[in-house]
Amino acid sequence: MAIPLRKIVLWAVGAAAISAAVYFSFQTQPVPVDLARVIRGQMEVTINGDGVTRIQNLYEVSSPVTGTVHRSPVTVGDKVIAGETLVAVIEPTQPAFLDTRSRLQAEAAVQEAGAALRVAEATIGRAEADYKYARDQFERAETLFGGGTITQSSRDDNKLLLERARTALVLALSERALRQSTLDRTNAALIGPDTNASRAADSCCIQIFAPADGEILSIASTSEHVVMIGAPLVSIGQPDDLELVVDLLSSNVVRLSEGASAYVERWGGDNALLAKIRRIEPSAFTKVSALGIAEQRVRVLLDILSPADERPTLGDGFRVFVRVIEWQNDDALQVPISALFRDGDDWTVFRVQEGQALITKVSIGQRNSSVAQILDGISEGDTVITHPSDRVSDGIEIIDRNEL
Asked: Tell me: the pLDDT tens digits for 34-47?
């Protein structure tokens, strides 16, 4: 029985379709990738760290005595003039209250000192009488000696008695002064707090004036309070006289030098500020990181080069982010750091040529967080694959993801 021609044609078309589907299913499709150009341009390697602004010439005014500080005559932000603006007034500390035992002891001491004073006064009376008698005797002996009635020896004896009487009188007067002072001291021990008396006159107080021109940056307490000697009262400085303090890892600091340039970012403004390292402190210190790791840090001080009118809102104690330039080149051949990967001990990239990915060894120099310097292996204008996936291999066909 002959097969109809129509069925033969349908079978042929179906077989061709199946063959085409099988063929295309086994064909390798180009892998979508992200591409980047190898370029020349400015490149910088920086050492980054968090920093804090600090006023360079800060004046901390402290209490020269222990006493009571009156309510502050200034407020934070006030402008002050050296030697003219009053910044604090301190009066002596008020006497403490006496408990019952202390008061009884103080009163007994007063009575004892009073009795001793009366004894001293009685001694003075006796010494004065002895001195008067010795003086009369000496004057009489002088008269008799002049008439030749007594000898030289008798005259000298009367003179010695006069000197002794004079010395005894001086001692008695000194004793009375001593006892009077003791009585005054013991009476002072009975003095208690007396607010009205202590504030009777401003002459009792110490007035402290601003040591330098500037603004009040902080006040320990605006209210009246008791302070000990050396306690801080106010701090004064120029708000635009700022420096930066950055604590960097000691392993990074060894690659820096004084005078290195830096960028100041995340300070609140739209543009980065320029700065320069003024000093690298010679010793490191241990600082525990947020992860609990003990790190050796070195304090680095930087001067802000940008003028004050470009940072009018930046003040003392503000946190910033600092990038110190370790290395820079204005004509560096570079590729994105995401194009590099390791092949054994070598750095390699996937270079694109005629739609294929070719694995290429490269030599790299400096690196930062985004690009790496190319020393050898590829040239300016070459195209490389960034973030290559495990589907990319040597010789495979690729297609730019942006063309899909």
From this structure: 999 999 999 999 99
Q: Which of 313, 329, 345 represents a domain boundary (last residue)? A: 329
pLDDT in tens, 117-131: 999 888 998 899 988
* Sequential DSSP letters for 34-100: EEEE-EEEEEEEEEEEEEEEEESS-EEEE-SSSEEEPSPS--TT-EE-TTTSEEEEEEEPPPPPP-H
Please tell me whether residue 299 adopts helix, strand or coil conformation.
strand
**CATH number of the domain encompassing residue 393:** 2.40.420.20
Is 270:276 a contact under the CB 8 Å cutoff?
Answer: no
By the 8 A CB rule, do 83 and 210 touch?
yes
Residue 3 domain flag: no
Scanning the structure block, which residue is given the tokens 């120099």? 365
Mean pLDDT score, 372-389: 94
Calculate Rg over the CA atoms of the chain. 48
* Run of H or E residues at 165: helix 152-188
